[in-house]
Amino acid sequence: MLIVLHPDVTPQAQAAIEGRVRELGFTPHAISGAGRTAIGITGNKGPIDPGHFRELPGVADCIPVTAPYKLVSREVKHDDTVVDVSGVPIGGPEVVVMAGPCAVENEQQILTAARGVAASGASLLRGGAFKPRTSPYDFQGLKQKGLDLLSKARSETGLKIVTEVKDTETLPAVVESADLLQIGARNMQNFSLLEAVGDVRKPVLLKRGMSSTIKELLMAAEYIVARGNYQVMLCERGIRTYETMTRNTLDINAVPVLKALTHLPVLVDPSHGIGLRKHVAAIARAGVAAGADGLIIEVHGDPEHALTDGAQSITPQQFRDMMKAIKRIAAAVDREV
Ligand code: PEP
Ligand code: MN
User: pLDDT digits over 54-67, tens only?
Assistant: First the structure.
């Protein structure tokens, strides 16, 4: 249930309403929108009798919430959530671009990529330090050294840092260095990790599992938000289908569907979505046209020799051309880049 408050509700009256929610054994979540403040309720198994709240001072309305992903649903919060990543707003009028290599490999590699993408208008630098790899024999990332190199690239370029959190053990180290915590596709339903990032007060980029439904993605986001971390954005990164010509199939449908169901920002990852360097720009354009709030793109100074995901990494020059095209698409859908 959602308790909509009067616009002129006093802090005391709001505290009393939240107290009543707790007395019933549930958890109140204050949700501020442009036009109204409301209190979402979680922890209830079935419908709640609105009679518990109707007569309390400051209560304007009690609305049942039908979606199982309550706090992330548009039913509970109509206005778009704008996530602040160390001063970069995501989910507002601007389409935000995050770019950089799949993995941090060495100082020269990350700095070259960072300078290149910054010069072309990226706002965040991506780069994995803790890499979840299919084979235990493949490059697993530079770990703490990778985080240090990302921090160095941030100091030099001003780009904010997005990097993957692979497990709860290394979460504190990543929290220390990153501006945005990435939960990868393979961890989308790692519920302990979702709870752990839910307890952190740092923004989270939650990627869709490669065989997860849109509803499962929203329920995973709910795990994070239910713990009090409301700074969450979602990312469509391609799903597994019977198609073998491409690495994954970017589910472009997910963009407008998610935008309708949730107030959280929605990003597109065309690199993992298609897996083929020469087509990344086309899928990036499609993502922006479909209404994505941002893109995350793999860029490498020497993709042929990349230690991870070289086949889908574009060069800084290709990235610059892609950005020019993205600007035109964004203008056509009344957005900016
Ligand atoms: C990545 O961003 O490099 C990555 C591992 O992505 P995903 O979790 O979507 O596979
Ligand atoms: Mn990758």
Answer: 999 999 999 999 89
